[in-house]
Amino acid sequence: MGRLATFAELESDLFKRVIAGADHELTGCRVHSIDKAWDGLHVVLRSKEGPLSLAITGDRRHPQGGHSLDEFIQGKHEYYIALMSPRLVQEVAAALTNVTAKKFRQWAREAGGDPTCAVFLPQLRRAYREAAAEKNGLMIVIA
């Protein structure tokens, strides 16, 4: 897709303000990047049940987003922005601890995805692990 994905950690109070539609300043928020690998990771993880299927999409629309990741992928929008609740961050972090590179490559072959995206699993796992450790939510931005 050629677009970069970043995950900004939002502490619980900031997450609530963003959900409520308040303007927000992300200065000081820890930011994680999964570069252009978001698309390959998404193809594989969306085929899984439970929290892994939401690892790239999040579980809440951002008040300034208003469109789905699928609409973004279809080229109908310039960016994708969504939110992941602190609860779901915890669940995804736990689920990712059991995903090995070997398992991911197998899932990729089954889903028709790119097995080489497994090299980005440590970055994705670290983003979720660090956000979960602080009980933070995430803002997902792909642009």
Count of all domains: 1
What is the CA-CA span between the terminal residues?
10 Å
The biggest sheet, with number of strands, parallel, antiparallel or mixed sense and barrel status, is: 5 strands, antiparallel
Give, in order, the helices and strands.
EHEHEHEHHHE
Shape: globular
CATH topology: Hypothetical protein yfbM fold
**Name of the CATH class:** Alpha Beta
Percentage of β-strand residues: 15-25%
Helix and strand content put the structural class at alpha+beta
Tally of alpha and pi helices: 6
Low-confidence stretches: none
Give Rg in angstroms: 14 Å
> How many β-strand stretches?
5
Order the strands across the largest sheet as they lie in space.
Answer: 2-1-5-4-3
The helix content is 25-40%
CATH level 4 superfamily:
YfbM-like super family
Average per-residue pLDDT, rounded, comes to: 93
> Which CATH architecture is right?
3-Layer(aba) Sandwich
Explain this structure:
The chain has 143 residues and is of the alpha+beta class. The protein has a single domain, classed as 3-Layer(aba) Sandwich (Hypothetical protein yfbM fold). 39% of the residues lie in helices and 17% in strands. It has six helices and five strands; from the N terminus they run βαβαβαβαααβ. Strands 2-1-5-4-3 form a five-stranded antiparallel β-sheet. α4 (86-96) crosses α6. The chain is globular, with a radius of gyration of 14 Å. The termini are close together.
